[in-house]
Amino acid sequence: SSTKISAIPGDGIGPEVFQSVVDIFDATQAPVIWDVIKLSTKMEGKDPISPEEIEKVRANKVGLKGPTTTPIGGGHVSMNVFLRRELTLYANVRPCVSVPGVKTLYDDVNLVTIRENTEGEYSGKEHEVVPGVIENLKIVSEKACLRVAKYAFEYAAKYGRKKVSAFHKASVMKMGDGLFLKKTREVGKDYPMIGYEERNVDTACGMLVANPHLFDVMVMPNLYGDIVSDVCAGLIGGLGLTPSGNIGENNAIFEAVHGSAPDIAGKNLANPTALLLSSIMMLRHLNLFDHADKIEKAVHGVLKDGVTKTRDLGGSATTTEYTKAIISRL
Ligand code: NAI
Ligand code: MG
């Protein structure tokens, strides 16, 4: 039986890269049914999705999302912020795995950043205490630490990973990061087959750049995760090749890390790889491993081959030509 998936193609290059995924899923007969979610008004103060549509997203549980343009200086709240809040997507997961045929400093990078996605330094709570002094609050709750730590170890167990590293700065933020470490350590005791270590986030960044093979799964508070996941993306050739998942208790939304690329939108030039890799993550989340492996092999094959490359990777293939090359390898 097929699984119903919320499809949010987005805008800019969103619909073009989304079509590529749909075509490839069709070609491999992946057992999913796309339930296209309508975006509503972009008007000031309005939500980007109507209550009826968000109920569909909630009920479908799993979704794939293309990039959405965030209006600057007014307009609706960012779609990502909206979905994260509505569905309590508490963990942001970013695997960074070397892509064949893309030259970078290291081969065989295979890292996963798991970032607390709801609080920490990004709680949005800040105010002026007295003129000239701002207080910017970092919120750390036991509940949020536990659920993201649990997800990190569950992820490690599901995907046969060997080690979870917790990144922190508990030497300075003794209580906040201290609580994060205490809870992560506690959860780790339930997973004796998975190694556990704690690293200062600054030291860890240096180690990542000097030798990315030192790490495996990394879990951390919000701000550190934002930065570390981009460091990891750099190690595999940039944001254009990076998929992500936003995980909640009942819902999971997968998306590429890049934006809507208005400069190349509508020109059939976009590279759909990041959304494709996100859709592969989604298939694995749904335990559809055979389809995930098959599509991944075809994508890697085309990239390794290097004949059909989109412009951003130095080639001249269009989105549809690249998609056809992948389909012909399935
Ligand atoms: P961007 O990622 O859209 O573009 C940066 C550069 O990378 C551009 O030159 C673009 O052409 C190129 N690029 C990005 N994705 C590409 C792809 N798949 N293939 C080939 N080239 C690609 O970032 P930018 O310009 O800062 O943001 C544009 C819009 O996207 C903004 O409204 C922003 O808010 C939104 N955005 C949405 C995100 C999301 O929905 N997850 C994430 C990041 C930005
Ligand atoms: Mg970021």
UniProtKB/TrEMBL annotation:
Keyword check for Signal: no
PROSITE patterns, alphabetized: IDH_IMDH
One GO molecular-function entry: magnesium ion binding
GO terms under biological process: isocitrate metabolic process; tricarboxylic acid cycle
Coiled-coil regions, chain positions: none
Cofactor: Mg(2+); Mn(2+)
Tree of life domain: Eukaryota
Alphabetic keyword roster: Magnesium, Metal-binding, NAD, Oxidoreductase, Transit peptide
Gene3D superfamilies, A to Z: Isopropylmalate Dehydrogenase
Family: Belongs to the isocitrate and isopropylmalate dehydrogenases family.
NCBIfam families: mito_nad_idh
The protein's name in its UniProt record: Isopropylmalate dehydrogenase-like domain-containing protein
Originating species: Stentor coeruleus
